[in-house]
Design a protein that fits this description.
With 524 residues, this protein is of the alpha/beta class. It has 16 helices and 17 strands.
């Protein structure tokens, strides 16, 4: 059993009463992400002592049907005693999303639990009488605003700590995002809104500021004098899998680039914040985004996957949920530039795609060529932070090949978490972020001005692609991308050293390591 890292002073446990309302509790997001994350926190002792979890949705269900609904595949290896204890604190309330009276009934349910919890806290002689209400919106974006209005009118309490968690997408462009933000900030204060991007809860993404600002040798060379280019990669080895109807409305740029990949860029490239407070960290990220001009079409390559060569995997437009003749991009490479003193002239290459040759999410910092002629054809040094499927940091450097020759070859300093921290349970991203919601920590959530700045970078290119009906280039399922993808990277200075292959986890393929890692986590 893996060791669980604990917080001896867990602020989530300090409130006298905590009620979490999962709105849209009958949907897939709640089943696959929200409730498994809540159970993970419960199982490892991170949830508050006085807690109730209420599922709210339009479907009519009794308590038993609700429990069966939320108990997904992720629960199948869970200890049955722990699962029963968890389900005992979960209940269900049915109601419409746009009904103030239905949310009024929800409020009565919340107040009943709060009354009991406050009495219990008083018996325990707890001085803290805080009441925390978390409203997690696991609903389609089309009902975000009606739900927010219903919460404010029917279930909000000015004397309690109200926290509203919102899932992406946050609009489709700058105008819709601003309209969306206007509606929410009219109803709730900014410090009550938690715009969740689960990649900010990933272990390696949270580690990047420590790498940057906790190691003097990295900070000294973290600038355009030493760095040639940065590549942020988000590759998925599967297609839309029947979700083409949803994906087609957004495409790969909106789906992962404007949010997940931008957030990885922010934590990698931002200036040192004044402190680790939520406002200072998010201000540093917003300041960086304001230095990035809008992406130009000449710096973009789009692709759309076709069927696999053997015909076993269908193409994107073969999905019956995808509109006929769709031009939605399932692959994109694009280059951003940061116009500040540190990053002037350094290409930031973003590459994302579905149905690729492997699953991989990473940030790769490639340094400039060694400025001497002692050793010809030296590979460039690179620092790679592997976000998934397994966590790792490795530094590629040139090393003398052992033996009676004076020949350099590429090797690596390898920090694979699977080996170095084999006794530590790394929580899922949603677990980490939900704990921060309960603690009232917004450091890893997106602030309104930060969201605005990100949309300003991408909105012009999104509108141009749609206006000019640009056709993406085809690429085969399970390939490295469309024709010209490698040349596109090379155009911006990226050099691939063909003789090097990172021996991930003692030489075993990453896919094999990831499969074993998932199986082990399910067993744990």
């Amino acid at each position: 059993m893996s060791q669980v890292q604990t917080h001896t002073d867990n602020p989530a446990k300090q409130a006298a009463s905590t009620v979490i309302v999962v709105i849209g509790a009958s949907g897939d997001l709640a089943k696959k992400k929200t409730f498994p994350a809540l159970f993970g926190l419960f199982r490892n002792g991170f949830l508050p002592k006085r807690l109730r979890i209420i599922g709210y949705a339009r479907s009519k269900m009794d308590k038993e049907a609700f429990h069966e609904r939320i108990t997904s595949e992720k629960f199948k290896n869970a200890p049955q005693d722990k699962l029963k204890q968890f389900l005992d604190i979960c209940e269900y309330v049915s109601g419409q999303y746009d009904s103030e009276s239905d949310f009024g009934q929800l409020r009565e349910t919340i107040e009943g639990h709060e009354k009991d919890f406050l009495a219990e806290a008083k018996r325990d002689k707890l001085d803290n009488q805080d009441r925390v209400r978390v409203f997690y919106m696991a609903t389609p974006p089309g009902v975000f605003v009606p739900v927010a209005k219903s919460i404010k009118a029917g279930a909000y309490d000015t004397e309690a700590q109200n926290r509203l968690v919102i899932e992406k997408p946050f609009g489709r462009d700058l105008a819709s995002s601003r309209e969306f933000s206007h509606e929410f900030t009219r109803l709730f204060r900014e410090d009550e809104i938690y715009r969740i991007d689960h990649y900010l809860g990933k272990e390696m993404v949270k580690n990047m500021p420590v790498i940057r600002f906790g190691n003097i040798f990295f900070e000294a060379i973290w600038n355009h004098n030493y760095i040639d280019n940065v590549q942020i990669t988000f590759k998925e080895a599967f297609g839309t899998q029947g979700r083409g109807g949803y994906f087609d409305e957004y495409g790969v740029i909106r789906d992962v680039m404007q949010n997940h990949m931008v957030q990885m860029l922010c934590v990698m490239a931002m200036e040192k914040p004044k402190s680790l407070s939520a406002d200072d960290v998010r201000s540093a990220k917003a300041d960086l985004l304001r230095c990035i001009p809008p992406v130009k079409m000449e710096d973009v390559l789009l692709g759309q996957y076709t069927a696999s060569r053997d015909g076993k995997e269908p193409g994107y437009t073969d999905d019956p949920t995808v509109p006929e003749g769709s031009r939605a991009a399932t692959y994109a490479s694009m280059v951003l530039f940061i116009n500040n003193q540190r990053w002037q002239g350094v290409p930031i290459i973003m590459k994302a795609g579905k149905a690729m040759d492997e699953a991989k999410v990473e940030v790769r910092v490639q340094f400039k060529d060694v400025p001497n002629g002692l050793f010809p054809n030296l590979a460039r040094n690179e620092l790679i932070a592997r976000v998934g499927p397994t966590e790792a940091i490795y530094l590629k450097f040139n090393n003398k090949r052992p033996g009676l020759v004076n020949q350099p070859e590429v090797s690596e300093l390898d920090l694979s978490y699977r080996r170095r921290y084999s006794d530590v349970y790394i929580p899922e991203a949603y677990e980490a972020l939900l704990l921060e919601v309960l603690s009232g920590d917004q450091s890893h959530f997106i602030r309104g001005d930060e969201l605005d700045a990100a949309w300003e970078i991408f909105t012009p290119i999104l509108h141009q692609i749609e206006r000019e009906k640009i056709q993406p280039k085809p690429y085969e399922y399970n390939s490295r991308g469309p024709e010209g993808a490698d040349e596109f990277l090379q155009k911006y200075g990226y050099k691939r050293h063909g003789d090097y292959d990172w021996p991930s986890d003692l030489g075993r393929p990453v896919s094999e390591v990831a499969k074993e890692y998932v199986e082990k986590k399910l067993q744990d």
